[in-house]
Design brief:
Helix content: 40-55%
Number of domains: 2
Number of helices: 20
Strand order of the largest sheet: 8-7-12
Structural class: alpha+beta
Shape: globular
Strand content: 5-15%
Number of strands: 14
Amino acid sequence: MIFFKNSPLIDVEQKDFIFSKRPFLNVLSKKYGDMPIKQYVLEHFKNIRIRNTLRQTELIECVENLVSQRLGESVSKELAEQLKKYYWASSADHHNILNTNLPLSSNLLFDKALEHKGCILVLSCASISQNNEDFPRGVLFHRDGETQHAAFFPSKNRNSIVYGFRPFTEKEANAVSNELSTFPAFARLLQSEDVLNSNSFCTQVTKINYKFWNLLFPQTKSHLIYLEFEELVTQLLIKHHLGGSGVIYNLIFDSKNEAILSRLIRVMEQSMRQGNAAAEIFWGISDEKKYRIPLKKINGFLKSDDSSFCIKFTPSAILTALKEKKIMPTMFLVFLVLNLYYGLNCFGGINQTQYLTELQTEYDKLEIDNVKSSSDIFLYNYGLSFIYNSNGGDTYALDLLNDENNNLWNDMQLALNETTFNDALSGAFPLYYSLLS
């Protein structure tokens, strides 16, 4: 395993193109370029404050309840206390078992900033298909230099989404464990009673990543907590925003606000270069295959294009559909609730940092909320990568378990102290160039 300490060769044309598409990266590069990435994160941590304690309390109570159900009361209370002081979450990752070097680097960066103690809360996206490039339906690892895929679920489920999907069974866990003979400790984790007794795949991911983190890095006392943001927002909507009043309720259900809501959605669309959104505020979820279904509000109903999926667009019908996992919030609604309304500092990657900045500006301009939307900071962290395999390519989390470097942890800490912002950023340029082209 190797770590970045020197900037790789940079294609100037790529760099200029990326900075033209994401100008904030150019600003950050000039301001923090020579700063070690650990110090870069700490500089942002120092500026976090709470702008509305009542809203903060609502969100923290909901997070605490969900985490308690999955990881126990002790962990949930520790996280709740931390959020009262450091009101932030990483929110660019996908809800899957820790696989690739981007989330690995991001989470190690937070671990270092937290001095190897406390909680790293990752509010992750579970509306992705199981065949996403991060391979949510299984685990990735290298064998003889080649990438290997060990899947819990059959290929017929590859287009099913992670959110609301069933847990893998003992038989499926055993099949994957047989492929992971060189990782016996991780295989035992997959086969543990606690994991197998989970009520959903999302819950299994939370439990696995929590234990996997300390299996990977026994030197740290930090807790890695993955919680799918669709479920958090679903519970917040059910408990606080479908009762007949309030900013979120009025935006969603008051016909006088349709133009305002459409304007906010359009800001996000343009920032993400997506054209018209496939779904505006809710996705439908098909009963059998658990596919994502684009829904639009039409004449008082939430409908799919072919009208095969249709529910009334009323608070009571939305409440029931959310409880029954027939619908889920879109990414727009997720960040409308978490960032714009609750003011949670959401730390993310090149797209999220761009569209949240633009959404906040537009939200405040529209004067629909008497509490200013702006969270204190946008920390761009998801993309600052510094871990690579011996050939200079990407590594997987499982690879670290069998790494031959006995000083792996110490080397990693040295890299976090010495790798500069520009060193880590430049490693992501080839990826960003392909994403933005």
